[in-house]
Amino acid sequence: MLTRERGELTQLEEDVVKSLADHETLAANIEAEFAERRTVGERLSDRLASFGGSWTFITLFFVALLIWMVFNIVVAARSQFDPYPFILLNLVLSCLAAIQAPIIMMSQKRQEAKDRLRSENDYRVNLKAELEIRHLHEKIDHILTRQWERLAEIQEIQLEMMQDLPAKTR
């Protein structure tokens, strides 16, 4: 049926048809499979990206900036550690942004790969469900056709019996 509609089947579609024939379940836990294949660096970058995008990070970062500025304004009068335009602070912030951006991009890239696997799994499950539903429709159509045939046979028997009834009453 799928070959008639789409022509040549892809490997993915052939896998779905095989699972349909073998009565296999296609649903898979993509999260668990993906988590098993992550390296230590990938796990670390995911955690850093998660923390870097949290309110905890924003709050701690804001507090650290305030402490830095207050400390340097108070101490600046005496030792000139990082006076008012806070050039050292700007350098630290630039370095932080330069490091944080690639970490976030790596995490997003992995999330995209996970989403791609999840959507492929969803496609497989949906295609199998569609084929199963079509198969059920065919079975129901066959049952209905068989019932109509049987009903027609019963009706013929009843007609024959009704035709024989006047002959028996004479």
Task: Give an account of the 3D structure.
- The protein has 170 residues and is mainly alpha-helical.
- The chain has one domain.
- Helix content is 85%, strand content 0%.
- It has six helices and no strands.
- The chain is rod-shaped.
- The model has no long low-confidence stretch (mean pLDDT 84).
Concise synopsis of the structure shown:
The protein has 170 residues and is mostly helical. The chain is built from 6 helices and no strands. 85% of the residues lie in helices and 0% in strands.
Number of folding domains? 1
What is the number of strand segments? Answer: 0
In terms of DSSP E residues, the strand content is under 5%
Low-confidence sequence ranges? none
Coarse shape: rod-shaped
Give me the secondary-structure topology.
Layout (H helix, E strand, L loop, with lengths): L1 H5 L4 H12 L7 H7 L3 H13 L2 H25 L7 H83 L1
Helix pairs in contact: 2-6, 4-6
